[in-house]
Structure to design on (384 residues):
């Protein structure tokens, strides 16, 4: 069947092909030595758990890592994991993860679940806002250069080389939580979005002034298609579109993305000695929701791991993997039998299968500005 081919053959084949191409041939396969990532739970590989000292329960991590100890808010791999694999690189280690003699030779991940672009408040899930992540990176860079100067070969094997900080890729996937906070606080979007992007631009400028020259920026996805938002704000059917997504939240995401794209265009002309790539994650994810059945999925919005049953299988009183007493009854938010049929994992995050699809589409290059292809113009980190 076409659906089975698309999902279980075509997408893995695309990723495998990219990985093989990127790793084959001459020494010019890679023109960058490391990846430095900043963001929220969409790309957190363990930072929030290490930083706040708590654990995720099963079934988080069960699909690929067989354990929730990876610290990922997913049943398996994230988009950043698939991109690293396609580039022939190991999964990024979280900056705050100190157990197991972590190697940061190929980069470091500062993304932390719940993080925002704007500074954290007392009510924030994560204290590691974008500005803090930047401070962590700058501290990391200073320490690396200091330690490498001492010439300890064993230590140096675990650290990036100095040129990594100029020739490395700086990735960003952040802003979703800022928009969500604006809805809960009822802050007008025409006030919130410029403030968010001004803070973001200030952070990029700091990195540029400290030698960063390759920027890879994801926009935000269709927030209105997340079960958590629909459960909270979508009780009125007139507020939903034909796909069951919240119109207001998707409009907000599109407004944010249009202004983020404009910022990236400005930076492309301003940073004449740098590369700035904007990636339209929204378009990829919305296409997945709108055309889920053709892509081999069965549930575009209902959560795989949750409680309550159709249509959303989501209850904001109980999180994935937990057991609580609700309405006098002991209940558990369990995982579904086959996560590969679901787009949404726990109400706010995507399943590994969905992340794999999104990654395969990123690698086509047609969702990037400037665009690239496997046959011709590629982004700075996919040269061969």
């Amino acid at each position: 069947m076409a659906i089975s081919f698309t999902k279980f053959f075509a997408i893995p084949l695309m990723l495998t092909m990219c990985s093989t191409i990127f790793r084959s041939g001459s020494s010019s396969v890679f023109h960058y030595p490391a990846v430095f990532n900043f963001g929220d739970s969409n790309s957190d590989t363990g930072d929030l758990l290490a930083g706040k000292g708590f654990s995720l329960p099963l079934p988080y991590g069960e699909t690929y890592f067989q354990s929730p100890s990876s610290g990922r808010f997913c049943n398996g791999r994230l988009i950043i994991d698939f991109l690293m694999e396609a580039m022939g690189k190991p999964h990024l280690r979280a900056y705050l993860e100190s157990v197991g003699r972590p190697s940061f030779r190929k980069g470091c991940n500062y993304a932390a679940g719940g993080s925002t672009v704007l500074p954290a408040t007392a009510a924030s899930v994560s204290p590691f806002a974008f500005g803090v992540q930047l401070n962590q990176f700058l501290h990391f860079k200073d320490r690396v250069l200091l330690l490498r100067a001492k010439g300890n070969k064993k230590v140096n094997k675990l650290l990036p080389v100095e040129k990594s900080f100029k020739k490395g890729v700086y990735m960003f996937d952040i802003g979703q939580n800022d928009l969500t906070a604006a809805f809960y606080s009822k802050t007008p979007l025409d006030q919130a979005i410029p403030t968010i992007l001004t803070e973001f631009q200030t952070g990029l400028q700091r990195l540029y002034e400290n030698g960063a020259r390759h920027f890879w920026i994801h926009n935000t996805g269709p927030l209105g298609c997340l079960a958590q938002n629909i459960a909270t704000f979508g009780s009125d059917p007139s507020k939903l579109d034909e796909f069951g997504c919240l119109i207001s939240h998707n409009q907000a995401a599109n407004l944010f993305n249009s202004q983020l794209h404009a910022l990236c265009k400005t930076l492309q002309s301003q940073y004449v000695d740098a590369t700035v790539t904007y990636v339209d994650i929204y378009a990829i994810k919305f296409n997945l929701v709108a055309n889920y059945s053709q892509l081999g999925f069965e549930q575009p919005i209902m959560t795989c791991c949750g409680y309550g049953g159709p249509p959303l299988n989501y209850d904001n009183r109980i999180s994935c993997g937990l057991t609580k007493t609700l309405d006098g009854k002991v209940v558990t938010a369990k995982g579904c039998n086959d996560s590969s049929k679901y787009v949404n994992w726990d109400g706010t995050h995507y399943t590994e299968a969905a992340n794999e699809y999104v990654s395969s589409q990123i690698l086509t290059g047609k969702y990037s500005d400037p665009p690239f292809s496997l046959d011709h113009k590629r982004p700075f980190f996919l040269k061969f």
Notes: The chain has one domain: 2-369. The two ends are 35 Å apart (CA to CA). The domain at 2-369 is CATH 3.40.50.1110 (Rossmann fold).
